[in-house]
Amino acid sequence: MAQAEAQAAETVPVYRRILLKLSGEALMGAQNYGVDVEVARAVAGEIRDVHDRGVETAIVVGGGNIFRGVSKSAGKMDRSTADYIGMLATVMNACVLQDALEKVGVYTRILSALNIPEVAEPFIRRRAIRHLEKGRVVIFAGGTGNPYFTTDSAAALRALEIKAEVILKATKVEGIYTADPVTNPTATRYDCITYREVLEQQLKVMDASAISLCMDNRLPIIVFNMRTPGNITRVAMGEAGVGTKVCMEKQ
User: How far apart are CA 189 and CA 181, in angstroms?
Assistant: First the structure.
């Protein structure tokens, strides 16, 4: 009986509602620009696995694979103009991800901070929550709708608005390290780190405004490697040893 109960507990997600933060680069695959459709389909399959376990799933997707307001490609363009172009890039990525999700049988809605009624619903907090309650995956596009704010800030804001229990920050590495693991092979991964440590050490997890917003509202962040198949599900299920958790106090 005890063994059966333990096995049942392992199949129950730790989180009821999550927000997954995907960078635009995550959809790029091995390409230098744009979207790799096969990568989008693989990501959609993992999101479906989480969704099928009863986890209400919202997504914020970046646009760096197409255009980034603070990148060299923006040149001497006005910052506000460049940021709006970046927001439009997130809408394009959201459409790609929606198509991939619906091809694997997951009903999806795009809610945009920019008013583009032909391709997305306007962001309305109660509507977003209702979609989640009905079992739809919700993709938030258009950032916050304001220049000078990153999609990290959009992720923190939307997560709080929909009362998500955690932000899952998908990256190219296993979590947060003491140094850049790409250039420093002696860097070690944190299992858990506080918001204040992230800010004080200027660790490039999310931008400072997003970290501060999460800290003020005690919203945990889990940074993990999305290139490892099954990691999104593992994090949602609360599997130990996957990624790094950012929270108020070390656990």
Answer: 9
CATH of the domain at 82: 3.40.1160.10
SS3 assignment, position 81: helix
State the angle between helix axes of 125-133 and 151-161 in degrees (0 to 180), rounded to the nearest 10.
70
Full domain range(s) for residue 39: 14-247
In the chain, how many domains are there? 1
For 186, list phi and psi in degrees, rounded to 5. -90, 0
pTM beyond 0.85, yes or no: yes
Report pLDDT digits (tens) over 9-48: 457 889 999 999 998 888 888 888 888 889 999 999 999 9
Tell me the per-residue pLDDT of 72-113, one tens digit each, with 9 for 90 and over: 666 788 989 999 999 999 999 999 999 999 999 999 999 999
Which ranges in 11-36 belong to alpha helices (H)? none
CA dihedral 28, 33, 38, 44 (to 10 degrees): 40
Would residue 123 count as lying in a domain?
yes
Q: Residue 16 and residue 52: Cα distance in Å, rounded?
A: 12
